[in-house]
Amino acid sequence: MSKRRPRKKQLPETPVKVIIESLAHDGRGVAHVEGKVIFIDEALPGEEVEFVYTDSRKDYAEGKVVSLLSRAADRTEPLCPHYGVCGGCSFQHVESAAQIRIKQELLNEQFKRIGKVEIPELWQPLEGPHWGYRRKARMGVKYVAKKNRVLVGFRERRHPYLAEIDSCVVMHPIVGTKLVALGEMIAGLTIRDKIPQIEVAIGDEQCVLSFRVLEPETAEDQEKMRIFGQQHNMSLCVQSKGPDTIVPLNGEPEVIPTYALPDQGIEFKFRPAMFTQVNYEINKQMINRVLETLDLNENDTVLDLFCGLGNFTLPMAKFAGLVVGIEGDQPLVNHAKENARYNNISNVEFYAADLSKDISDQPWANRKYNKIMLDPSRAGASEVLKYFKKWQPEQIVYVSCNPSTLARDAGILVNELGYQLVKAGVMDMFPQTGHVESIALFKK
């Protein structure tokens, strides 16, 4: 006999009036109702709002603003008409300068609360374009039979459904302004309901769109895609399975996107599904900050952990004696080696290793490094920090896309390993979103 599913709890429909007390780490307003914390989309500290519940759990609830009774000075009008429905952005209602200030305050708070560390000096935030900056994305695709329309874009906020949008103002305009045209082209394919996503990779000069296909496309489909690509200055590819199956349309040349670091005279090649920073302007500034901070010379032996395709490794090698890059993804390591050869940089070594596992038997792990650079995923780098006792670096620069794990790891470095936190700050890699990119410097 099958068990009956528990009936979803009925949420109150009457709007509730509250005053917003603070911001959560993801940018939502925080209030309390009858002792329970409520996270409210698009609400700012100090505002009085009426909200309705969108979800309720044992320990917390979620809601959305239905009426703004008082307005914070930091509030502004969203630029995108789809804001609030599309889940791609969460901060468009916040004035740009305030977004940076809020993220800096969040970083400070996380260091104190999680890491039990005070930031002695704040770096000047790195800022770049607030719109049209995003060059990497994975967009969803959905054929809606009732409307005979193909949606292209991002999921609705807090829902699994694809949002019905016609443009994206944070995406680079070569793609952000073409969502309707993309949908119309896909709607004319025989496999219009067999394309779940598009991988977007935009280089300095090239735009490559990789269409995930669940069934083989016909010759007619390929011709329609080819014509679309030519009309919009894009290279269209198909992907039948994993990222390594991305191939150009029949008869078309493979287009390898590139991005340059003019200050260091370096150009990177990358394949569409490979990780690269989404915001090129901030990436350039970030690399310059790392180089200025580490002040490298030919006597330095640097370890670059979570090095990817060498985004920091190759620029550092322009000044250091030797740089050793470690990355968990073998294809990225292979590509990093290719980029080193392409740029005629020979004082680098790259190795593949899972930095969350035991690395004590790795030859590279048994050397000495006087400076370490690390840029881990959102999970942070706590597992590899124990090896710092062996390496004894004088300086550590830590770049992070998650302030909470950076704060945790800062606590380990300062309170357990005896390092001093010198400086920290934020970099506006993801304007209009709650994501925080940050950097910290530690010295022995």
Describe the structure in brief:
With 444 residues, the chain is of the alpha/beta class.
Task: Explain what the structure shows.
This protein is an alpha/beta fold and 444 residues long. The chain has 3 domains: 16-72, Nucleic acid-binding proteins (OB fold (Dihydrolipoamide Acetyltransferase, E2P), Beta Barrel); 101-129 and 279-443, 3-Layer(aba) Sandwich (Rossmann fold), CATH 3.40.50.150; 136-248, OB fold (Dihydrolipoamide Acetyltransferase, E2P). It is built from 9 helices and 21 strands. The protein has helices spanning 96-115, 173-176, 179-187, 219-232, 280-294, 313-317, 330-342, 388-391, 403-415; strands at residues 16-19, 22-23, 29-33, 36-41, 48-56, 60-68, 136-144, 149-153, 197-202, 207-212, 235-239, 246-248, 258-261, 266-269, 301-305, 322-327, 348-352, 371-374, 395-400, 420-427, 437-443. It has a 7-stranded mixed β-sheet, sandwiched between helices. The chain has a 6-stranded mixed β-sheet with strand order 1-5-6-4-3-2, with no helix packed on it. The longest helix has 20 residues, at 96-115. The chain is globular, with a radius of gyration of 24 Å. The model has no long low-confidence stretch (mean pLDDT 95).
